[in-house]
Amino acid sequence: MFGLIDKHRMDVPHVRNGWIQGAHSAALLDEMKRRCEQWARRGAPAEWLDKAETARHLGTSQYRAGWIDRRGGAVQPLAYARGLAKAALAAGVTIHGDTLATNLAREANRWTVTTRRGARVTADRVVVCTNAYAGDLWPGVRRTVIAPNSYQIATEPLSDNIRKSILPFGQVSSDSRKLLLYFRLDDLGRLLLGGRGPFREPRDDSDWQHLEAMLVRLFPQVKGARIDYRWCGRVSITRDFMPICTSRRRGC
Fold it and tell me: How many CA atoms within 13 Å lie on the side-chain side of 146?
């Protein structure tokens, strides 16, 4: 991802100072330490952080310890999607937005994709990149995953003194919960926090109250900061937390 941003000179706010996973429970310390050591043995720039170092890097004392992988980072996702589209167009790709694929079939040695508008496309290869929004295009895909809603909030841009007390070295973080919390500062100085929420679609601002309470618990210094944005979206989780792929010609 970062290589593509550089290669195509995308106008995308991004940082790459590392990703930190904090341990919210003492019971997870040994497992997380093994994970850190395993990545380090494979050449990753991974480093264990004790409680004090975790607090110094995150700006919160709520975690027992943690580890950092310095390859990690964050991008502004909409700007990145636009950057990919611009690069694809420059390479001669044709993009059809708002064109739902309704059927995928193998005919002779090619694939045929039928769209909601009636147009049909043939191709040697088809990549289904639907994440949690698979629908029924490919039989069985939707049943292989759980698709909960992930809720997020963003504060108003924080003052310099508060901003410097949170993730002061520019990392991003997601913690060790199975229904994890994740947080970062964006390029405007907003603090973004995401996590679990009602499985149903949201009804009103109260569906984000648990995140707003957690925000102040993690970072008391932001108490009183205005919440400018609230949103959510489905994420795809396999039942065993392992990646999957399917192919009619060969499985993996």
Answer: 12
Please provide residue 88's backbone torsions phi and psi, each rounded to the nearest 5 degrees.
-65, -45
Query: Which pLDDT tens digit goes with each residue over 23-74?
Result: 999 999 999 999 999 999 999 999 999 999 999 999 999 999 999 999 999 9
Q: Is the dihedral of CA 57, 58, 64, 68 positive or negative?
A: negative
Spatial CA neighbour of 46 closest among 68, 71, 72: 68
Which DSSP state fits 80?
Answer: H
In the structure encoding, which two tokens stand for residue 49, read together?
A: 């952080």
Say if residues 75 and 14 touch (Cβ distance below 8 Å): yes
Helix (H, G, I), strand (E, B) or coil at 54: helix
Taking the C-alpha atoms of residue 228 and residue 246, their distance in angstroms, rounded to an integer, is: 40
pLDDT value for 238: 84
For residues 107 and 109, what is the distance between their CA atoms, to the nearest angstrom?
A: 6
Q: What is the pLDDT of residues 75-118, one digit of tens each?
A: 999 999 999 999 999 999 999 888 999 999 998 899 999 999 88
Q: What is the DSSP letter of 52?
A: H
List pLDDT tens digits, range 162-210: 999 999 999 999 999 887 899 999 999 999 999 999 999 999 999 999 9
In this structure, the strands spanning 120-123 and 110-115 are: antiparallel
Residue 30 identity:
D
Question: In which element (H, E) is residue 115 found?
Answer: strand 110-115
Structure tokens belonging to residue 87: 């690069």
